[in-house]
Specification:
Elements: E1 7-12, E2 27-28, E3 31-32, H1 33-43, E4 47-53, H2 57-65, H3 85-100, E5 106-110, H4 119-132, E6 136-142, H5 160-168, E7 181-191, H6 192-198, E8 208-212, H7 224-235
Parallel strand pairs: 1-4, 1-5, 6-8
Antiparallel strand pairs: 2-3, 5-7, 6-7
Length: about 250
């Protein structure tokens, strides 16, 4: 029997956000976006360790209150609008290797802006990762619009590129269209050694896999309107919010 994976769960949450200031500490149904990711990770049996990478004292304090380790402060140059997720992951790996003289088999990158992934999603991703011998498994959502119906709008209002795309499609009947997906930002399960070889989350395309999640669990929060929609989801019971209860800070 293969040895269990040793997975470092890493929540990446910077202090700055232009679209929704203070985004990572905004609340939905009484819990911060950071809190959703923390509690889901804490419920996952494959989470060997949970740490937080942030440049913000307020976010660090929230993380500690939730029972998350904050072993370092992220440098300011890795907390700007142009900093990449690749660089944040690399910094965390560097710190662990240099200060603790160890590695993990994989790292699960979590971003609070896509808060509604559950421990069950993480478990399914880890199973897919193991079965497929993957270097990466990410969360996915189905596209609302088939790509043959999308394209660039010319300055004069012409939609010629879209019409040409439609003409090139074999069929535009919904029942004939293949499922198309895109990343939802819910999680990135990354093989430690594979990342070290390429320095990129998306390394060898043939070793990248995805887990499709439903519309509501795939919500991404970047604006006040997104946050309002998340509250609507909570109010209407479109997600079982009991999933995140009972872990971390006292109720």
């Amino acid at each position: 029997m293969a040895a269990p994976l040793d997975i470092l769960f890493l929540i990446a949450a910077r202090g700055g956000s232009k679209g929704l200031p203070g985004k990572n500490l905004k609340t939905v149904n009484g819990l911060s976006l950071l809190g959703y990711k923390a509690r889901a990770a804490q419920r996952c049996s494959s989470c060997s360790r949970l740490i937080l990478s942030t440049d913000s004292n307020d976010i660090a304090e929230e993380g500690l209150a939730l029972g998350v380790e904050v072993p370092f402060t992220r440098p300011s140059d890795l907390a700007s609008d142009v900093a990449t997720s690749d660089s944040v992951v690399a910094h965390s790996m560097d710190w662990i290797e240099e200060n603790e003289k160890r590695t993990y088999s994989a790292i699960m990158l979590l971003e609070p802006s896509s808060p509604f992934a559950t421990a069950a999603h993480f478990d399914k991703a880890i199973a897919l990762y193991t079965q497929s011998n993957a270097s990466l498994v990410v969360g996915l959502r189905k596209l609302d619009t088939y790509t043959a119906l999308t394209g660039d709008l010319a300055a004069d209002g012409s939609i010629a590129p879209i019409v040409k795309s439609m003409h090139g499609a074999n069929s535009l009947r919904r029942q004939d269209l293949k499922t198309q997906v895109t990343m939802n930002g819910a999680f990135y399960l990354i093989n430690w050694e594979a990342f070290r070889k390429t320095g990129r989350i998306y390394g060898d395309p043939n070793e990248c896999y995805g887990l499709v999640m439903n519309r509501w669990h795939s919500l991404e929060i970047e604006t006040q309107e997104d946050l309002d929609l998340a509250e609507y989801v909570a109010t209407k019971g479109l997600i079982d919010f009991n999933t995140w209860q009972g872990i971390g800070i006292p109720e």
